[in-house]
Amino acid sequence: MLEQGLDIESQLCPLILAVDEGIQLWDSSGRKRFMNPATLQQFGEKVAAAAISYEEMAALCCDEMGQAIPPHLFPVAQALTGATVASDMLVQLQAPVSDCRWLRLSARPLIPQGATAAVGILSSSIDVTHLFEYSQQLHRQANFDVLTGLPNRLFFADRIKLAIAHAQRNNKLLAVCMLDLDGFKPVNDHLGHDAGDLLLKEIAHRLESEMRGEDTVARLGGDEFALILGEVKSPIMVEQFLQRLLDVIARPHLIHDQPVRVGASIGVTLYPTDAVEADQLLRFADQAMYKAKDGGKGRYHFFNSAAELRNKANQVLLQRIDAALTSNQFLLYYQPKVDCRSGVVVGMEALVRWHHPILGLRSPAEFLPLIEHDNIIVRLGEWVINTVLAQLVKWREVGAVIQVSVNVSARQFIHGGLEQRLGELLANYPPEICSQLELELVETAALEDITAVRQVMARYQKRGVKFALDDFGTGYSSLVHLKRLAVDVLKIDQTFIRDMVEDPGDLAIVQGVIGLASAFGLKVVAEGVESIDQTLLLLRLGCDVMQGYAISRPMPVDRVGEWLQDFHPDPRWQLAGGSYPQRGDFELLLMEVFHHHWLEKLRVAVVEGGEPPDCNHDNCRFSQWYSDSGIRRYGAFPLFRQLDEVHRQVHKQALRLLESLAVLPRDEVDFHAVEKANQLLIAQLSEFRKMQSGIF
Ligand code: C2E
Ligand code: CA
Ligand code: CA
Questions:
Q1: Whole-number pLDDT of residue 696
Q2: Into how many domains does the chain fold?
């Protein structure tokens, strides 16, 4: 019926022949029945053939991406399936039909009244090229960077969301990168903005040419770019890619015939390892980019979620410490300093503690490192000084005049306005209290800004405040520094004290610091003194004031009074003798200490089990010293020559002891013989040493 009914052009309205829109009529098998002249103009002569099918027409079209259109998606095909609504499609005519015309196609079935099946299809094609290009232009302006043509921030934000959705569906990693050029500003400044623009275009071009289909590169503004790398199999793959990118960017650019070099710093973050939200990923990538800059530029840096977590935890802890300060959770312990030669307590060191409501007493090592670079340490430091000053007043009221030293952090000294704050704190106290205060500054901090430190010191030394260099020997003070700093006290660092009995290097440092202090007329304090050996050795070396577990552990303030009352000098301190040794006798002293220590180790091995020290005479440090510098220096003295035999006896007894230890139970082994031999050796050594220094 349709075939006859549509018989043919003459019956159709002349309008159809005149309009700009293409109009087509197809039969129910999808073959052309009619096309108006506009259609021929749009699609070209190819469609003029008498019985062309809609498939052939579809083959002339492509979609926005330039992809061929599957015939079954063509609107005519859709209408043939009975779709009653007109289906619409925007197509591009493929060359050589035209250089990019955009058509909007639609089609609908023709179903005569009363019938159920379509007798044909009516379709139309409207040229919307102008409209399409206009909307494209609007889209470009909104979504692309004008200078480089790369996607802009807006478009990138869209892309990253799509990429996340894609990665999530396919269970893939995604890398988001921020890239900032290094050394772009000088190009702009020295060669002009034109050159800067050219360079940016060139960089954009190089970046784009390195990207794969699933990647995106955008310019966010200035010299900042962002990348999304999709389908990431491993972080290593990202690293390789970024290294290549860095190399590509670093190759010289020719701008206005001049070679120009720039680099880039790239921050990287991974989805879903680091974050799953787009804005978080961007923020992390940005943070990582700054790390790359800080790390020396021209590199990439992966955002580290573990470090970030730690940072966050620290932030929380900082707040807690701040709150603890406000709610009085800090307290001071005091550790005595004693002059072991005279047996007099000369002062106390105030050491801060945090009484945590749940965790209990925390030592400074657990919280000071966290606040070292924060202003909280300045507040805490002021609290300590204030508390100590108030305590000095209380002690004075009960007749105890004690010198107290306070540790001052580098930040407090240099950036904390200590010079002024100390003045304000001291203003509330009488001069005699101020002169009981000593400030301990670690050597390394003092060296950070000698001029500033000197100023503070000079001002308050006038008011009686003393200054000590703490942990002395661990920094790099030269003699010139020591002279310029003009401190009152040197505190020998406890690491040297700990090992000086065994390590001649440490002993030499201790001896050196003591010598230095005496040369500069400074007091010297040994800290971390844990044993009687150390005490005696220090006394013999000429260091009298000591602080350490051998005397007392730090104690809470309410125990100080009792401790002071109960304090008695250890009678063994007298063993050190009344006079300081000569330099030459130092080695004799060292051997005394060494052999004493060796015997102690042997005793521990016998009593408690475990590895005994080397008992072979030839391997003993004493033997080596004796046959070398000992004999050279003291060989002329018969008393010294006797020492060799006494020493051999000690080792003979020791070897015998080891033999019996191998066959007898430990408690049946006789330690007495070796002990007696060793006592004789030490007594003779000591006698010889005293003879050498003229003490009898
Ligand atoms: P420091 O000034 O060198 O204080 C000596 C540290 O050695 C103290 O540790 C003390 O308890 C410990 N000590 C004392 N005698 C011995 C000993 O015989 N053997 C051993 N192994 N250790 C001994 P503490 O109280 O844990 O303080 C550690 C560090 O924290 C101090 O080292 C000081 O640098 C800092 N500090 C303590 N209180 C404050 C304060 O109020 N302000 C500031 N800025 N720092 C403080
Ligand atoms: Ca100290
Ligand atoms: Ca110290």
A1: 39
A2: 4
**Is pLDDT at 418 greater than 90 in this prediction?**
no
Ligand 1, atom 43: nearest CA belongs to which residue? 407
Q: Which residues line ligand 1 (CB under 6 A)?
A: 335, 351-352, 363-365, 368, 381, 384, 407-409, 440, 470-471, 494, 527-530, 548-549, 554
Q: What's the gap in Å between 97 CA and the centre of ligand 2? A: 89
Question: In whole angstroms, what is the distance from residue 337 CA to residue 339 CA?
Answer: 7
CA–CA dist 645, 638 (Å, integer): 12
Residue 234: pLDDT over 60: yes
- The answer on 526 and 441 residing in a single domain is yes
Residue nearest (by alpha carbon) to ligand 1 atom 35: 364
Residues 409 and 374: their CA atoms lie apart, in Å, by: 11
Report the atom number in ligand 1 closest to the C-alpha of 333. 25
Q: Which residue's C-alpha comes closest to atom 33 of ligand 1?
A: 407
Residue ranges making up the domain that contains 670: 583-693
Q: Radius of gyration over alpha carbons of the chain, in Å?
A: 45
CB within 8 Å of 1: residues ≥ 6 apart: 112, 119
Buried residues in 470-480 as b, exposed as e (16+ CB within 10 A): bbbbbbebeee
Residue 380 burial by Cβ neighbours in a 10 Å radius (0-12, 13-18, 19+): buried
> What is the CA(527)–ligand 2 centre distance, in A?
8
Q: Which two three-digit tokens encode residue 119?
A: 């007798």
| Interstrand relation of 102-110 and 87-93 (parallel, antiparallel or unpaired) | antiparallel
In a domain, residue 316? The reply is: no
- What is the model's pLDDT at position 311? 72
* Residue 561 sits in the same domain as residue 619: no
What is the CA(564)–ligand 3 centre distance, in A?
23
User: What's residue 8's pLDDT?
Assistant: 53
Output the six-digit token pair for 291. 């790390």
Distance between Cα 352 and ligand 1 center (Å): 8
Most confident listed range (56-60, 563-567, 593-597, 602-606):
563-567
